[in-house]
Amino acid sequence: VLSKVENIFKIGFSKDPSLIIAANKACECFVSQNAITSTLGGSRKTAEFLARYADLLLRKDFTPKIARNTEEGISHMMKVYRFANDKDIFQKFYGNFLARRLVKNQSVSEESERSVINSLEKTCGLTCLRRYNQMLKDLNSARELNGKYHEWLDERFQKKPIPDFVSTSITILNSLIWPIQPRSALRIPFELETSVNTMKEFYTMQCEKLQQG
Predict the structure, then answer these.
(1) Beta carbons of 116 and 58 less than 8 angstroms apart
(2) What CA–CA distance (Å, rounded) separates 167 from 150?
(3) pTM above 0.90?
(4) Which of 71, 86, 97, 123 has its CA 20 to 30 A from that of 188?
């Protein structure tokens, strides 16, 4: 609807400024106050729904039923986002969904994630954007560390197999960056203790190397 209206303003009214201002106010009012928001709890729901829509667009299981493609969906979302109040609510939900996509390896691509982050640059605070980018950077560092870990493991196994070792995928992240926090203490199954301790050994070695410079 917004795209059609924009074309009408462009072709039929030569982008008349006063008309565009009035239309923007009307869009802002409608996006924040409509039948859905009135029923479900106010304008805050619009921001939450936009974040959920973005999450659907940016997941690997994206379906064309939502939009023809991720890029088109992002473009449509940003048009609506301009008129949404409670942008801080959007940022909170978006950050949580971003973290979940990255940790669970559900993101469609880092390029698409960065595209949304760059689109939000004009409306979100620098702190918010910095955290989003830090999560992407932290995950890339974790993947790089995992690569080194598996190389180190291969060398270990060539010299001497590790008894009771079970192949696992462990991602080490900076807890100060990510909004996801454990709800309870992690209890490692007995079968994985050797694998976890082996990763700890490698990680400790890497930390010592960094400290030594």
Answers:
(1) yes
(2) 10
(3) no
(4) 97
Distances (CA, A) of 126 to 46, 97, 131, 189: 22, 19, 9, 41
What value does the mean pLDDT take over residues 4-18?
Answer: 69
Give the span between the Cα atoms of 134 and 33, in whole angstroms.
34
Distance CA 73, CA 133 (A): 21
Contact residues for 108 (Cβ-Cβ < 8 A; gap 6+): 57, 58, 59, 60, 62, 70
Task: Give the whole-angstrom CA distance, residue 64 versus residue 62.
Answer: 7
Confidence of residue 96 (pLDDT cuts 50, 70, 90): very high
Q: Read out DSSP for the chain? A: -HHHHHHHHHHHSTT-HHHHHHHHHHHHHHHHSSHHHHHHTSTHHHHHHHHHHHHHHTBTT--TTT-SSHHHHHHHHHHHHTT-S-HHHHHHHHHHHHHHHHHTT-BS-HHHHHHHHHHGGGTS-HHHHHHHHHHHHHHHHHHHHHHHHHHHHHHHHHH-PPTT----------TTT-S---SS-----GGGHHHHHHHHHHHHHHHHHHHH-
Q: State the Cα–Cα distance between residues 58 and 43, nearest whole angstrom.
A: 24
Measured at the CA of 26, the angle between CA 22 and CA 30, to 5 degrees, comes to 170
